[in-house]
Amino acid sequence: MMNACVSKQPENETGSIDQQVDALLSKMTIEEKVGQMNQYNGFYDATGPAPSEGGAKIKYEHLRKGMVGSFLNVRGAEQVRALQKIAVEETRLGIPLIFGLDVIHGHKTLAPIPLGEAASWDLEAIRQSARMAAVEASAIGINWTFAPMVDISRDARWGRVMEGAGEDPYLGAKIGVARVKGFQGDDLAANNTIAACAKHFAGYGFAEAGRDYNTVDVGTSTLYNIIFPPFKAAIQEADVKTVMNAFNILNGVPATGSTFLQRDILKDEWGFEGFVLSDWGSVMEMIPHGFAADLNEAAMHAANAGSDMDMESHAYVNHLVDLVKEGKVSEDKIDDAVRRILKVKYELGLFDDPYRYCDEAREKEMLYHEDHQKTVLDMARKSIVLLKNEGAILPFAKAQKKIAVIGALADDKTSPLGSWRIGSDDGTAFSVLEGLKEKTSNFTYAKGADVVTGDVNFVLELNENTTDKSGFNEAIRLAKASEVVVMVLGEHGFHSGEARSRTNIGLPGVQQELLEEVYKVNKNVVLVLMNGRPLALPWAADNIPAIVETWQLGSQTGNAIADVLFGEYNPSGKLPMSFPRSVGQCPIYYNKYSTGRPVNVEGNVFWSHYIDESNDPLFAFGHGLSYTDFEYADLKIDDSDPSGIKVSVVVKNNGKVAGEEVTQLYIHDKVASVARPIKELKGFEKFMLEPGSSKTVSFTLSNAELGFYDNQGEFIVEPGMFDVMVGTSSIKGLTGSFELK
Ligand code: GLC
């Protein structure tokens, strides 16, 4: 239930929020100002390498002295109230704290991982999912989430691809806006809305070799045309209240110390009025980056570059006052940072009522609410992508003959919650077996093999991937005795996520061997994948008749998968990220450049290719099948209207069941002053079509879609020829062209 409690931020008699902020700022000492710029980790899980001197004692001392502006990882209305009480009642000015938490895809009730949600291409469902997350997070006293992550990434080796919206800036921007609007709602002062945080600014998703926290070195065109757009949209289209910076260097400068990123682009060029939070320890990490000699210098660089709040480096709280007194950081810069922080606190209503988010009764009522389960079930079903369905082995008929279910993940109630389940509870996902039991009793189950051995948790490496094949024989026996086999294989929840990069992006452990052994005795195999990143599965793609991509679907995993397997929901998802044939192809993405040798023109080897692998992905960006068949016809391009190029196509449902289609529009600017990608997504529409019905899908290509950023960062539109493709994926559709005059 999205309780409709709203409370408009009253214009206080002392004027606007800006006037109230200025009035408060004028009373603050430099120590109190710096205090607002200091964020401490609470007393729960550390989500990063905690500094050694960060014990609770010093944090309470600083809190009572007004030297703390925010906490993260404090959960529960009671805990939040206790800390807020100290800030409000025991400090000189009583400035309330703001409480942040990683509410990435839900809090207790979990939606699919963000990459899974992105596969739905359903912006309203994604907004609703974030809304639900905000209702639960705010119920435990949280008023700020460190989401959405809007980092574009093209490299499946990087564990954090699970947290974003994939490889495309247009889709990523639309989804980022939907998530921010879901979190922040229409009234930020209401007790069920929370401030959002676009992260990680900028370029974090381009970590070299897909290794987390690694160097980022990208060109201007990639920075402006691929990396920046989702951040700019979150700010200018959704008014995101905070931005979190990134761990990486960009052109040799750590993002945290980058005046170019945080002041020139974010605050000056884009007009960002919220505040910048450093990522965990990123101020301190300028020392190992070789950009600061010590914490004092790191604090100076970060404050001068526009990092407004320091998460857990303990740099500002220990050095910033002296840096101001020494004239190394101007108090004007401190005032700007503090204004931004105080403004968000006022907008959240925290000065009106610091305990607005501390309602134990609401906490009990809202967590795991049945309405939230319905929201995440809808989101989960829409996130599932049907990658292959040869011979229409799916959907199963209700009176389906005997099914063998094989794979440890089929009985796993925790991995499907994903790696960012910091607020939820292990064992709370509906498993595949539980979902199937709702549909049929005519199935047997064998684990076949574990995914990993031993226990794992958020801050530890996964133990060894299992090598134990002792369960194979039982699995093979059941497969032999059944008409069809559902194999649920993939990654453990902690095979992806932060600090979980992999060099091998196949099925972990002995799952691939299990799949091949089962296939030897029964060819009717449906492979259900549970994973946090694109996987390289060429053998399965060649041999297995049906493959269903289910990501990690959150609390309603089993019910959503069962609904799709039995046809109660016709899958409608489309890949937000290319699936490689092999890890050697990474990074691989659809919106690539042509290169000077894109094809083999003379039957020789001197063209851009591999001698041992195709250039093409295993499954393309935008790919996703349905239980029905959509036919595209009648592409029309009209360049007569000054408001933009009108493109339309007729889509018909030629099948026997209703289904949702995502019609996608791509352009190619064929010749430009900066080489342009061979294909760029510039429009999509998701819609339902009943059997036999048709729909005309129309798009308008304006300058916003046809232009690009040049190498001076200027947005330009150039006349010339454009190719257009409108279809069901980035590799299948009707083509045409037009000349932009
Ligand atoms: C982590 C992540 C960031 C997260 C923060 C707080 O290191 O990089 O995305 O929000 O720390 O947990």
From TrEMBL:
Q: Which reaction does it catalyse?
A: Hydrolysis of terminal, non-reducing beta-D-glucosyl residues with release of beta-D-glucose
- InterPro entries for the chain: Cellulose_Degrad_GH3 (IPR051915), Fn3-like (IPR026891), GH (IPR017853), Glyco_hydro_3_AS (IPR019800), Glyco_hydro_3_C (IPR002772), Glyco_hydro_3_C_sf (IPR036881), Glyco_hydro_3_N (IPR001764), Glyco_hydro_3_N_sf (IPR036962)
GO molecular function terms attached to this record: beta-glucosidase activity
Q: Which UniProt keywords apply?
A: Glycosidase, Hydrolase, Signal
Gene3D superfamilies on file: Glycoside hydrolase family 3 C-terminal domain (3.40.50.1700), Glycoside hydrolase, family 3, N-terminal domain (3.20.20.300), Immunoglobulins (2.60.40.10)
* Name of the protein this chain belongs to: beta-glucosidase
UniProt record, GO biological process: glucan catabolic process
Keyword Signal among UniProt keywords: yes
Recorded hits in Pfam families, A to Z, give: Fn3-like, Glyco_hydro_3, Glyco_hydro_3_C
Fibronectin type III-like domain: from which residue to which, for each copy? 661-730
Q: Which family does it belong to?
A: Belongs to the glycosyl hydrolase 3 family.
For this protein, the Enzyme Commission number is 3.2.1.21
Q: Which organism is it from?
A: Saccharicrinis carchari
